[in-house]
Write a structure and sequence with these properties.
Helix 2 packs across helix 3 and helix 4 runs antiparallel to helix 5. By secondary structure, the chain is mostly helical. The chain is flat, with a radius of gyration of 52 Å. The chain has a three-stranded antiparallel β-sheet. The chain contains 28 helices and three strands. Helix content is 73%, strand content 1%. The protein has four domains: 156 residues, no CATH class; 170 residues, no CATH class; 242 residues, Methane Monooxygenase Hydroxylase, Chain G, domain 1 (Up-down Bundle); 132 residues, no CATH class. Belongs to the COG7 family. Its main location: Golgi. Pfam families: COG7 (PF10191). This is Conserved oligomeric Golgi complex subunit 7.
Length: 839
């Protein structure tokens, strides 16, 4: 049996627990007393062994204590000795440091004197050399050795910089500038010949001469001048053809122009839009050839020289380019083509009346812009090794002719969209003869509903044109234009709605004196609407109701389509925000450096950054204020609560409210007409006439005014059913259609009840006979409301209870109710009508 001694060293050692545990580990067949005896014996033996070992180790440790004490004392003495030595060494170092500082100061002064003496010596040498060079430079020029002359002038420039602003050498400085100009002029003819005849070695030597005298700009200017001439000739070729065709068409004198026609017979008549791609192709081919040749002739400068050539080319032909683009856009429309005018001329207003910017004008402009865009992409690929600043300047120069058009983009879209909406058939409704109002309503509503998708298509086309032409950089102007156009369109719809109100006969109300007032001005006063004729048949009346209900589809269509369009526009703006941020901020340029943040380590834009360059980003780099406003707008578009067309959205909601109001007025018009004079009916004040027979004092049947309203309300669900079915054309919308019908049925029934209770409140005095009659009328109307599943208003129920109660019992009923079942103000009013004193 093994004994674990580890448990005896634990702080929470429990002897009883240890003994119990030891007993549980014994073999079941061993007697307990024998097991405990063995355990006690083993513990005693182990205790004796531990005691013996402890005694032995204690004795050994006691013997080692004197030796350890002697070692500690020796280490202490060594530490004190070492500390004294280190202090002596530090003192010697401080003394050496002071002496060394004095020596170093002396050496520094000597070195300064030496350097100044050497500078003075070199300056004297440069001054002597400058004098010698100034005296021999004419001989060098006379020898015709241009490299030697360049070296001489470079040495003179170096000597002048060393001498500084010494008055004695002022004339030499002027002489140097004259000599550099002279050498530059001597180089130019030879450089022209080398560039024209592709002489690589000669061109390199001449470039070295210009670089040596600091005339690199002269190399750029001369290279551009030599190669700009054939490119301009290529551009002017189209102008010459157009001029010949113009002279021939204007004068029509074959004899005088026969020689010109003979010369130009091989020049077919060609429009600018069809000629421009060929010009770009030839120009790109020319630039590619120059790029390859300059790589050999000017390996350090070709990345700048060839792009500079294209920039200067676009600057030289820029004005003519804009004029040709302007005329080309005018050729797309016969009216402007006959006048030889373009889109800029139309926008200026200096055109005959009726000539406006059309979609074809802008489409022609976009087509030309796309041609330039293809050329710009090819150019970007060709100049991909150039620095970003050079590449951006080049692409901006390529797009520069379209800048004047882009600045007027918002104006163009306004004119185009306004004219396109004006072409849509949006005639308002006109009053027809008897039987024709329903047809007129249906036709007008049909035109309004069909116009909505047409307008949305026009707006979507405008968004696409903006992206195609400006890349989205004019998105802020586009939104303003779209908002204005939507307002214009909704204004037309509102005018049509007004015409529909006139046809439906709900545009005017009649007061007691017969004067006409605007609808709604006397709603709270209980005035009723009068139709434009009392001869309208029941069938015609229901056709007007059906036509009015169809207007709801116009409001629903406008709301849904405008909401979808606005959501699409918001998504487009959010997409533009991402793309343009990559283009502008992903390749933002440090104005003092020629590299960007996302370069490839050599000051050149990485391929990922170069792919982000587009026309929108190029424009915004030069207009930071516009870029800031545009990006604020695009950032806001990411918020789902953002309204791309804020004012138009409000007007759409207002139009929907106006349509609902109009439909309600039409549906309630019949009720208003029937209830118009209920409060003034003579039957309410009739007194029971004496009779020898026992006759009822009132009619047991409801009167015609309330039966007409009841029949109208019971028939109304049939009129709402077609429109509800149109809404619930699918199973998914079945509940929506039923809810729509129930909602309008409830509105009309509630309005009818309100009108009726207003008329009842207007009764000044009512006899018992009148009270019994009106209670029958109220009961009939209540049955109609119940049949339509409409709740009976407490006010109407109070009228019925109080009017059906005998006059002598009315006071007791009102006093006993205390507002539990009766509407007390109404009950008090009935008591006043029936002359019952509640006090």
């Amino acid at each position: 049996m093994m004994v674990d001694l580890g448990s005896f060293s634990e702080e929470n050692f429990d002897p009883k627990k240890w003994i119990n545990s030891a007993c549980q580990s014994r073999h079941p067949q061993d007697p307990l007393d024998k097991h405990l005896g063995d355990l006690e014996m083993k513990l005693q033996m182990m205790s004796e062994e531990i005691a013996a070992s402890l005694e032995e180790q204690s004795a050994a440790a006691h013997l080692r204590v004197p030796r350890a004490t002697r070692d500690a004392n020796r280490l202490l003495e060594d530490a004190l000795s070492l500390r004294s030595s280190v202090a002596s060494i530090l003192q010697n170092i401080k003394k050496a440091e002071g002496y060394s500082a004095e020596c170093i100061t002396t050496l520094a002064k000597l070195d300064t004197v030496k350097r100044r003496m050497e500078a003075a010596y070199e300056t004297l040498q440069d001054a002597a050399g400058l004098t010698q060079l100034s005296s021999t430079v004419e001989d060098v020029f006379a020898s015709g050795d241009l490299p030697h002359a360049a070296e001489t002038l470079a040495n003179m420039r170096h000597c002048l910089s060393a001498v500084g602003d010494v008055a004695e050498f002022a004339n030499v400085r002027k002489q140097l500038e004259v000599l550099e100009d002279r050498l530059d002029n001597m180089v130019q003819p030879r450089l022209t010949d080398a560039l024209s005849n592709r002489k690589v070695d000669v061109a390199q030597d001449l470039r070295g001469i210009l670089i040596r005298i600091g005339r690199y700009k002269s190399l750029e200017q001369h290279y551009t001048k030599v190669h700009l001439k054939p490119i301009k000739q290529l551009w002017e070729d189209f102008g010459s053809r157009q001029q010949v065709n113009k002279l021939a068409s204007e004068k029509n004198e074959v004899e005088r122009l026969s020689s010109i026609h003979d010369v130009q017979s091989s020049l077919p008549t060609k429009s600018f839009s069809s000629w421009l791609p060929s010009f770009y192709d030839e120009l790109l081919l020319y630039l590619e050839q120059e790029w390859k040749w300059c790589m050999l002739a000017f390996p350090d400068d070709y990345k700048i020289l060839v792009p500079k050539l294209l920039i200067e080319t676009m600057v030289a032909i820029g004005g003519s380019f804009v004029a040709h683009v302007n005329i080309a856009t005018g050729d797309a429309v016969p009216e402007t083509k006959s006048l030889a005018k373009g889109i800029l001329d139309v926008l200026s207003g200096d055109m005959p009346k009726g000539v406006k910017v059309q979609t074809k004008h802008l489409e022609a402009l976009i087509e030309l812009h796309n041609m330039t865009g293809s050329f710009a992409k090819n150019t970007q690929h060709l100049f991909s090794e150039s620095d970003l600043r050079v590449l951006l300047d080049t692409l901006k120069a390529v797009y520069l002719p379209y800048e004047s058009f882009k600045q007027k983009y918002g104006q163009m879209e306004r004119v185009i969209l306004s004219a396109e909406i004006a072409e849509i058939d949006l005639r308002g409704a006109v009053t027809r003869g008897v039987g024709g109002q329903g047809i007129e309503l249906s036709e007008t509503v049909r035109r309004m509903e069909e116009s909505i998708p047409q307008v949305i298509v026009l707006l979507e086309a405008a968004v696409e044109r903006c992206i195609n032409f400006t890349g989205g950089s004019e998105a802020d102007e586009l939104i303003l234009a779209l908002d204005d156009i939507m307002l214009q369109y909704i204004s037309v719809l509102n005018e049509n709605l007004k015409s529909l109100r006139a046809v439906c006969g709900v545009d005017v109300t009649a007061d007691g004196g017969g004067s006409k007032k605007e609808l709604g001005s006397d709603k709270n006063e209980g005035a009723s609407t009068a139709r434009k004729g009392d001869s309208i048949s029941n069938e015609e009346e229901w056709s007007i109701v059906q036509g009015a209900l169809q207007i709801l589809t116009v409001a629903d269509c406008l709301t849904s389509r405008s909401s979808v369009f606005e959501a699409s526009l918001r998504a487009t703006l959010a997409r533009l925000s991402t793309n343009m941020s990559l283009s502008v901020f992903g390749s933002s340029i440090d104005q003092n450096q020629s590299h960007v943040s996302d370069d490839d380590g050599n000051g050149r834009l990485s391929m990922a950054g170069r792919g982000a360059l587009d026309m929108a980003g190029l424009r915004l780099l030069d207009v930071p204020e516009k870029a800031r406003k545009l990006f604020n707008l695009l950032e806001q578009s990411k918020d789902p609560r953002f309204h791309a067309l804020p004012i138009a959205s409000q007007r759409v909601a207002a139009f929907a409210d106006a349509v609902n109001e109009h439909v309600y007025d039409v549906l309630i018009s019949k009720v208003r007409q029937c209830f118009s004079d209920v409060s003034r009916l003579p039957i309410w004040s009739l007194v029971e006439e004496p009779s020898a027979f026992s006759l009822p004092s009132f009619s047991s049947y409801p009167q015609s005014y309330v039966t007409s309203v009841g029949e109208y309300l019971l028939t109304l669900p049939q009129q709402l059913e077609p429109l509800a079915e149109g809404i619930s054309n699918t199973d998914a919308n079945a509940d929506e259609g039923q809810f729509f019908a129930a909602e309008w049925m409830f509105k009309v029934a509630e309005g009818a009840t309100a009108l009726y209770t207003d008329q009842l409140r207007g009764i000044q005095f009512i006899t018992d006979r009148g009270a019994q009659q009106v209670s029958v009328d109220i009961e009939y109307l209540s049955n109609v409301l119940s049949a339509l599943s409409m709740p009976i208003p407490p006010v109407l129920a109070t009228f019925h209870s109080c009017l059906s109660t005998p006059r002598d019992q009315l006071k007791d009923i009102v006093k006993s109710d205390s507002g539990n079942q009766l509407d007390l103000p109404t009950a008090n009013l009935v008591c006043k009508m029936r002359r019952v004193n509640l006090e």
